[in-house]
Amino acid sequence: MFVILDGVDGCGKTTQAELLCAALGEGRPAEEAPLHLREPGSTAVGERVRALLLDRELVLSPEVETLLFAAARRQMLDELVAPALAAGRDVVCERFHPSTFAYQAVAGDLDPDAVLGLLNRWAGTPSPDVILIFELPVEEALLRRGAARDRIEDKGEMYLRRVAEGYRLFAELDPRACVINAAQSLEAVALDVRAAIESARKGVDA
Prior knowledge:
The protein has one domain (2-205): Rossmann fold (3-Layer(aba) Sandwich).
């Protein structure tokens, strides 16, 4: 399966991705273990694009950000995701189309349909089987995240509130999306994640 974990900064997706990979890989040899990716990143191209996107010395419009995210995502899909799925491995990726929709389209005042159209055309395959959206009040997300560390986090609380609204809208638009209450305990969130994965797997296998 190709699984996406997404949500506002501080929602706990990295911790949950690590827990999910450990659970999915239990009892499997190393070559069959789930592939854990972050986006943008994970490839040499993606990490360089990530550095550009987060560089506080650069001024990038939402349009430019969208194109850079799409380029890094296409590279990751070709270089890592498609081969792993073809080899029978699960892929767990932090961030994907929901992030670009929330941060660049909704919070960046771009046309949501145009952004989704671009992403689906140029970075749409392989397509995720399930998309987990971690929902957390912005106030708590900011406390968990701490001080801003990069250009995008520098955009502030009001920007992040619009991002959170973007995630809610994405969850309404995409039938693969499952909203997870990230304000619960770590263990409770992990149980909800596993339940969502098992439900999605039954749909894939049906």
